[in-house]
Write a structure and sequence with these properties.
5-stranded mixed beta sheet; Heat Shock Protein 90; 51% helix; 6-stranded antiparallel beta sheet; Helix Hairpins; alpha+beta
Length: 475
């Protein structure tokens, strides 16, 4: 059991740690992506600002050699046909822009003017249609790309912004300006390093706290286990497991365990009393029968055959009652047959004296033999205590079939109206066993009634006698 508890703690700790790890991984990935996106956008903004400054000079007619090109960042000015016409100084290599050239053309061709030939006019029209810009106008939305460049011997990754500008005499030019991504990459690497160091620490803390909390939560369960083991070893069902002073599932488990132990203790005690009472009841007819047989063996003329037969029948009936109770205790399900209680009551009353039956049809589902046994026990009990008459009525009340057996005897005291249904109980201590039976009839009747989904109760009658009511679900 301890290994199982340890396994529960291990599984709970592992599960919690995995869930937290997945959550941290998802959150860390989102943070890194957001950080990279924001910093890249900032680099793009810086590159766009540089590109627009150069584009503004071009729109104003500034010559290529007089452009304010940043020596620390790569800048290219490219014509529509991809010719590099201006570049920042110290640029040694570049990729990710419109051209990988790092030296401007020696004699850049000027864009055709409006007085050119027809082909030039056509080219101007195509260019104007493609750029959709007027002379001196800078494009509103630049395009972005990632690449790398080597400036003054130092290579780095850059975010490039491509800004288009329409000039009066040089056509459409594109300015490629770059902003380094080193700061962004450094920030992302720093955040990643912090996460790689912090996440294991967080997971270790989560695992430790979960282990300790689970151990604390399962400590009462271990107490319950130890007490149950002690109860099993000692067979002392009077002991109870400790109940935590909480209102959680463990406390409910302890209370349910104690309730189960109490029910088990009561069942064992009933079983002990039943065995003791059964042994006592069987001892009398067996001893009487043995005595008669021994006398008969020594003096055949003195053998009381009717008495021996009576004791044998009594012993047989007692054995049948005990067998039926054992089957009921074992949970034997009654048969599923339709039984008319009115007809069954008339059949059982036939041949009995002082029994009057007033019955209307009332069908139930169950075992005909067991239900007949219930009526027989109720009739026998009523006849033993009646002064003159036993009245039996069968009727329907809503969804119930009711059999009422009333006698005009002395009745059952209110304090004993539940006790009469206990096994081997006789309210009249002075009554002989021959008259009163073994005290199993009413116990059998109630058990059978409950197995059929019904009830059996007793109350007084206006005349002072006893009224037993059997209520069963009607078909």
């Amino acid at each position: 059991m301890r290994r199982r508890l340890a396994s529960v703690r291990a599984r709970a700790t592992l599960g919690t740690t995995l869930v937290v790890a997945m959550a941290l991984l998802a959150a860390g990935t989102a943070v890194l992506l957001s950080l990279w996106t924001n910093l890249s956008d900032q680099a793009g903004t810086q590159a766009e600002r540089t590109g627009r400054e150069v584009a503004a000079e071009l729109a104003a007619g500034q010559p290529y050699r007089e452009l304010s090109l940043d020596d620390d960042r790569p800048v290219q000015v490219v014509t529509e046909d991809g010719t590099l016409v201006a570049v920042s100084e110290h640029l040694e290599r570049i990729s990710g822009t419109g051209t990988d050239a790092v030296r401007p053309a020696t004699a850049p061709a000027a864009a055709p003017s409006g007085d050119g030939d027809g082909d030039a006019d056509a080219d101007d029209e195509d260019s104007a249609g493609a750029a959709a810009l007027r002379p001196g106008e800078i494009a509103e939305d630049p395009s972005y790309s990632d690449g790398s460049a080597t400036v003054d011997g130092e290579s780095a990754d850059y975010r490039f912004a491509a800004v288009e500008v329409e000039t009066e005499d040089r056509g459409t030019l594109t300015v490629y300006a770059g902003a380094p991504l080193s700061t962004e990459r450094t920030a992302v690497r720093t955040a990643l390093t912090v996460m790689l160091i912090g996440f294991p620490l967080v997971l270790a803390v989560v695992a430790g706290v979960t282990w300790l909390m689970t151990r604390r939560a399962l400590r009462p369960v271990e107490g319950i286990r130890r007490e149950m083991a002690a109860i099993t070893a000692s067979a002392d069902l009077a002991r109870r497991v400790p109940e935590p002073d909480t209102h959680d599932e463990v406390a409910r488990l302890a209370r349910t365990t104690n309730e189960t132990l109490a029910a088990l203790e009561a069942a064992v005690e009933r079983q002990r009393r039943f065995v003791a009472d059964a042994s006592h009841e069987l001892r009398s007819p067996i001893a009487s029968l043995r005595t008669q047989l021994e006398v008969g063996a020594a003096h055949p003329a003195l053998l009381d055959v009717p008495g021996a037969v009576e004791d044998t029948v009594r012993l047989q009936n007692l054995a049948a009652d005990l067998l039926l109770l054992a089957r009921l205790d074992a949970g034997e399900r009654p048969a599923d047959a339709r039984v008319d209680l009115a007809a069954l009551a008339r059949e059982e009353a036939a041949g009995r004296v002082r029994v009057r039956v007033d019955a209307e049809p009332a069908e139930v589902s169950g075992s005909r033999g067991q239900l007949r046994r219930v009526l027989a026990n109720l009739f026998d009990n009523a006849q033993r205590h009646a002064h003159e008459i036993v009245t039996v009525t069968v009727r329907r009340e809503g969804g119930r079939a009711v059999v009422a057996v009333a006698d005009d005897g002395d009745g059952v005291p209110e304090a004993d109206r539940e006790r009469v249904f206990e096994r081997f109980v006789r309210l009249d201590a002075a009554r002989s066993r021959d008259d009163g039976g073994a005290g199993l009839g009413l116990a059998i009747a109630r058990d059978v009634a409950e197995r059929h989904g019904g009830t059996l109760t007793v109350r007084g009658t206006p005349e002072g006698g006893a009224l037993f009511e059997l209520r069963l679900p009607a078909v």
